[in-house]
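[Automated response] Your request has been received and processed.

Submitted sequence:
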Amino acid sequence: MCPVSAVVCLLLACTPAIAEDTLHAHVRSDAADIRALIQDAADRSPTVRALLEEIDQSNVIVYVHVRMFPSQLLEGRIGFVASTRLTRFLAIELACPRTRDAQMATLAHELHHAVEIARAPWVVGADTLARYYETIGVVTDPGRDRLTFETEAARETAARVRRELMASPPAITNPYDRRR
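Generated structure:
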């Protein structure tokens, strides 16, 4: 069995997130540990950095959260929250508990989906999102209440980021250093 990540075509409830502690204003979280995860992924992976930069240049705002999924096979998903005339809001949910590197690879996968959406300005809600992914992806779970899709490009992005993370191990920190 392989882990699954999905583009979910539904409106996700989302609370405003704080963008402090991050250089990437369009990818946000209200949790400091998730903001640190995003920054660590950007520091260790040129691919994640490029995805964040492209999202920052778009009209897409992405909120990142961590949650428990009913299936251990689901690693993450992205969904449409809302759109205005000027801005489109997406939410990424990452599975927990997972290792930090696994969450960073899943984040990269989902950020790739956010870039796919950012590049399609006519995608402004769950219906247009489903139509778009019907053309660029494949249906992975034709559920009754939602459709889920996948793209080969997002899978390739996650694999590339896994390789980048292995080549750039996290900095070893002193747990007794109280300056942190």
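Summary generated for your ticket: Helices lie at 32-44, 46-56, 100-118, 126-136, 152-167. Residues 100-118 form the longest helix (19 residues).
If you did not submit this request, please reply to this message.
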